[in-house]
Specification:
With 246 residues, this protein is mainly alpha-helical. 67% of the residues lie in helices and 2% in strands.
């Protein structure tokens, strides 16, 4: 909403909100083509980004699509700060033509917030299930910095009387994920945020391998083996971590 409201995808006075979202989606697809990142996101429509009666600015999307959208928004905000353009992209194009750049106090802070979120995504995607101390600290640092910036933006939005940058219960859960990642050295991509998907992937593999005549008992047996294996592995990992920290 910040980019649309401030004219980064076109003039807000002469172009309708729906048309601006079409231009934004065109820029999103150009970003995907340039970066090589694929997702199943369909076109942007008003109800996708704005729910005035309930939430205000609010994007509804799938998990992986949200990550790609975050990368795109981070790239757009970086170009907005630098007042730069890229071939085939729509962001900042109209402002370059008119030289009518907005003066919004939130610009640099939103750009820093999105870059921090993108850095957090890259960290959790880069590492496996078990983290080193350095990786856990990096994930914790990026996550907590994002929460701090988000809180500041929420206060600014309240002062500006805008329904942007809400504090939701998910933010509290995210805070616990960061604390657990640092304390337990478990990647939240596998342990928290995506544990349901991770469990379903494992169950699918087990169901394909086990005896179909006794499916429930076979899954229970494999689950017990998995828990025992993880318990033993965590024992050795914790012992190695204690030796490193001496």
């Amino acid at each position: 909403m910040f980019l649309v409201e401030n004219g980064y995808f076109g003039c807000t006075e002469t172009i309708s909100f729906e048309k601006l979202l079409v231009i934004a989606f065109r820029d999103f697809k150009a970003f995907q083509c340039h970066s090589g990142q694929k997702c199943s996101q369909t076109k942007f429509v008003p109800r996708f980004v704005w729910k005035p009666e309930t939430h205000g600015a609010h994007m509804g999307h799938k998990g992986h699509n949200g990550k790609i959208i975050a990368y795109w928004l981070g790239d757009c905000m970086q170009k907005a700060v630098e007042r730069s353009m890229a071939p085939g992209r729509e962001v900042c194009k109209w402002l370059h033509e008119t030289n009518n750049w907005p003066n919004d106090e939130r610009l640099e802070l939103i750009a820093a917030t999105m870059q921090t979120l993108c850095a957090w995504f890259r960290e959790v995607e880069k590492h496996g299930r078990y983290l080193t101390a350095e990786a856990a600290d990096a994930i914790y640092g990026h996550g907590m910095k994002y929460l701090r910036y988000h809180l500041i933006l929420c206060k600014i939005s309240m002062r500006m009387n805008k329904l942007h940058w809400h504090i939701r219960p998910k933010m509290h859960a995210f805070h616990h994920q960061m604390k657990d990642a640092q304390a337990q050295r478990l990647n939240p991509r596998h342990h928290h945020t995506f544990r349901e998907e991770d469990a379903m992937r494992w169950l699918k593999g087990v169901a394909q391998r086990c005896d179909k005549k006794d499916l429930e008992r076979s899954i229970a047996k494999y689950s017990r083996y998995r828990l025992l294996s993880m318990h033993r592995r965590m024992f050795h990992l914790n012992r190695a971590a204690r030796l490193r920290n001496r």
